[in-house]
Amino acid sequence: MTKTMSRILVTGAAGQIGSELTLALRERYGSQAVVASDMRALTSGRLQESGPFEMLDVLDREGIEKVVDRHKIDIIYHMAAILSAVGEEKPQSAWSVNIDGLRNILEIARLRQLKQVFSPSSIAVFGPETPRACAPQETVLRPTTIYGVSKVAGELLGNYYVQRFGLDVRGLRYPGIVSSETAPGGGTTDYAVAIFYGAIEEKRYTCFVREDTTLPMMYMPDCIKATIDLMEADPARLIHHCDFNLAGMSFSAGELAGQIKEQIPEFSCTYAPDWRQEIADSWPQTIDDRAAREEWGWKPSYDLQSMVSDMLTRLRERRR
Ligand code: AKB
Fold it and tell me: For position 226, what pLDDT does the model report?
């Protein structure tokens, strides 16, 4: 891929990952080369001021076509999605946004022979029958959420476009993402972000999963790095395409609370598991990401301690 020549569209640019990814892509490829799009107006000043924005619904195929043609887009990072918890409240919308939306993007990319599409997947592709420790790259994929079902279908669809049409589609199975800029919206792993706001603002937090709930997680700088590294990876080295396992760290809700307490001794966390506990229990605790390491050199930089310390510093700075 020629770094300077590509014109990039990011869907879901107002979301948790989309917002930081757009800024990172603008930094790397130039602000005018990256078009942010979302069905909501942007709330972040930096995102608004740093480059072009288009209001776009991923279910509006004609609308996407117009934006792709007007901006001469050749790479799409398709970040718009409905996550696991909201998906259970609105299963029909989850299916249409996650699958019909992806199909629109893939078809537009195929017919216009775009260079690349990034289509994120998730640890939600796994289910209760997947080994909970070190979930393998190739394993049973029988998720019990509509989000997980749509992500399995999305991986398969992406891989189909690679094999059948030669379209360069790539994707990662994101773990829960912890970040300080934009709050996550409607995921099961959202407690791992909300706990920081509780700790800083009220010195307490009521967590909606059990203390011993352990899930794979990742800090946003690692998530952005993994996404861009995969998209820039030499295609000749890739055996997998849309379904890379990706690990950063794994910790229990109690371990996260304990790490925050080291820096905010007055902080107390209580646990009131709700219906999202069942979703969390259906996902593995740790992930085997050897394929990502071998095929494109993946290596995370943050562990629990360094992530907590960076999060608290950033959130405190923002409050000043
Ligand atoms: C969610 O909790 O739904 C997401 C995910 C793991 O994909 N954060």
Answer: 99
Strand partners, 37: 54
Which sequence spans correspond to the domains of the chain?
8-176+220-245, 177-217+249-285+302-319
Atom of ligand 1 nearest to the CA of 85: 3
CATH code 3.40.50.620 for 8-176+220-245: no
pLDDT tens, residue by residue, 13-23: 999 999 999 99
Contact at 8 Å (CB) between 73 and 8?
A: yes
C-beta separation of 39 from 54 below 8 A: no
Equal CATH topology for 8-176+220-245 and 177-217+249-285+302-319: no
pTM above 0.85, yes or no: yes
Tokens 């999963």 -> residue: 209
Q: Tell me the catalytic residues.
A: 147
Phi, psi of 174 (to 5 degrees): -65, 140
Binding site membership of 187 for ligand 1 (Cβ less than 6 Å): yes
Indicate the SS3 state at residue 90.
coil
To the question of domain 177-217+249-285+302-319 being in CATH 3.90.25.10, the answer is: yes
The reported pLDDT for the residue numbered 169 is 99
How far does the centroid of ligand 1 lie from the alpha carbon of residue 217, in Å? 10
Please tell me if the CB atom of residue 148 comes closer than 6 angstroms to any atom of ligand 1.
no
Give burial (CB, 10 Å; 0-12/13-18/19+) of 270: exposed
User: For residue 73, what pLDDT band results from cuts at 50, 70 and 90?
Assistant: very high
